[in-house]
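Q: Can someone sanity-check these two? First one:
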Amino acid sequence: MPTPEIVDCHTHTFFSDGEGTFEENVRAALAAGCTTLASTDHLTLPHDMDPDCECSVPETDLQEHRESFVRVQERLAAGEFGEAGKRLELVYGFEADWYEGCEENIAKWRGDAVFLLGSIHFIDGMAIDYAKEMDIWDSWGADTVWRTYVDRWCTACFSAADFDSMAHPDLVKLFSNSGYAPNIPLEPLWDRMAEAARESRVHVELSTAGLRKPCDDFYPTAGLLERFYHAGVPLTVGSDGHTPGTICYEIERAYDFARKAGYRSIDAPTADGSWRTIEL
């Protein structure tokens, strides 16, 4: 069986909480044989959620962010990165947090981004995936955090923000191997997530980021991915790379993981906002 082409639909630059430039990420993608690279920096957050602009693109930098992306896109088309560069499709997108009332902000800040990843990193203003701020885990307990996360995640699927794909669906499991495992059965929650994704007709992301995290697992885990498959939910695949060295991280391994769950294809966004299908 021929090796499927490599795509990475979730990456970050120094404009948000990553380290690399657009050019550095492109060069890393080309070295990995990538054919689609979606740039998805964290979209601007309200001041009370990110007061020091530590994790999202500041509103004042949005224009520079777009211009920097376009410059690299034009250089690719002009052949400055070689023939392989001409074959790499660079997609302008954002990862946007869902929170109450986010839709107006997302519409205002996304500009002409053609690809929008939805995610939930905060519950009632408290971070769920930041080891330096474990307040919600210590005060609410893992069971309540999980239930609330899934409630919000399912709501986000139907958001008027119109997310194209839901990033790292079970991000909430990040600290499950670090003393914060839930005691409740997760299968009913997974069933709810699969139903919400199916009914809202949103893609979900298979992310390799969890392999680099304390949970040491793909997002989503096998049981949840199988439910997405049986519900007919289409996949995008991404590394959530925050450094050039993690661009395209373990994408082929993710393809194998998707096949085991039943998937025979994934989808990738294009620069004009349409989709293309890649057979596995």
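And here is the second, same format, sequence then tokens:
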Amino acid sequence: MEWYHIAGIVILALAVLTIAIAFYCFRKVFYSPDRQPLKEDEYEIPPGEIYEVHRDQMIAWMKEARAMPYQRVSIQSHDGLTLRGRYFEYAKGAPLEIIFHGYRGNSERDLSGGVQRCFALGRNSLIVDHRGSGLSDGHVITFGVNERKDCLRWVDFAAKTFGSEQKIILVGISMGAATALMAAGEPLPENVVGVIADCGYSSQKEIIKKVVREMHLPPALVYPFIKLGARLFGHFNLEETTPLKAMETCKIPVIFLHGDTDEFIPFDMSRQNYEACKTPKRLIKVEGAGHGLAYPHDQQGYLNALREFEKEWNL
């Protein structure tokens, strides 16, 4: 066999191996399988010991949200997916929070407490399932890249449904916070007046590399396969934008909240986003709160911070 035949075989084998590894990474990081609605007596709690302390409170919030009057709503994404949510009305004409949940979460699990928080502040709430999550269509989670475009569609929906004067606040937790921040970097209608970002990451690349490092794998070697998997099989550019970049073009006030004992998304990532933000802003460190637990950990302090920010910037 000639040398160029051998070289060709080696190159082909390497190409196949690269694609195979990229596909495996895509399935592990971005792919979301079919999801089944929970039964009436089932309640989903995030995995991990830190959430067990708040289990009773979380279940109580979910029970309350299920018992409250709400309207099921849906929109079409830019790429043809049906995205679903639930609208809870405190009072007609009240400010509206559009709230986004975390990675591999869903609106009921992550945001039922947010409904109660909205009502405590005199606000209406629209909690939505991301693409590839909850009751929404899709099988690809894009870490906020396409979700930010979905956020803009939800803003359009709110304006058409409630009027162009409806005051809107973009809100998110974890990946949902990153989604809201990235959306805030895009052109927005004037009735979108602010962002509440709870424990969001500063970039998709950095949070993925952190998780890879904690799995005792070399991020410099693994991350390129993850990025390639997103491009080849998810059909999106993982680095198209980031929350950090979006803060450079954001034109509305942002309040960042983050637990200082968050072991998944470090508090410093919210600090980075805060420092990059060019608009009126505030950074709230919630002492002793783990990932996504700032509000359950200190409900009154959380509400006070939001009330002060609302008063200061007329949100």
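A (reply): Looked at the second one. The chain has twelve helices and eight strands. The chain has a mean pLDDT of 95.
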